[in-house]
Amino acid sequence: MITKLIPKKVFFTSGAGTHPEKLESFEAALRDACIEKFNLVTVSSILPPRCEIVTKEEGLKELSPGEIVFCVMSRISSNDPGKTLTSSVGCALPVDISKHGYISEYHAYEESAQDAGAHAVKLAESMYSTWTKEEPLKTFSIPRSSTVKDSGDWMTVISAAVFVI
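Now predict its structure.
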């Protein structure tokens, strides 16, 4: 029997990590965001109809280590000392909960978390509005920013919308 994989819940998280190895800086960012125990599969930008937004703590309780978990993720890495890295996901909630909303991902160098968050919201809002011809019910973002240390170690910054099926 084939079942549809339509998420019922979503939570938002972010993290930053540093390490001499790029891959391990990504792992450290996942740990900081509390999503390192899952096999993450990135998906595009649709917030399913009737998808409930829950806290990170509530969402994590419903997931198991090793589980394949779908997410919308913004990710940026660098080992350039002093460079600021910023990631954000933005969300546009539908006016009618029987319709879908949008989640955007955005990342940039040398941009504040506030500016990246505003840009992610603008993207999600634009995708929603061009489809519905109306403003979303609500918008928000989960931005994260960090600066590469002088050691030249790799820094990775992530923001994610994590789905619970």
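Helices lie at 22-32, 56-61, 113-132.
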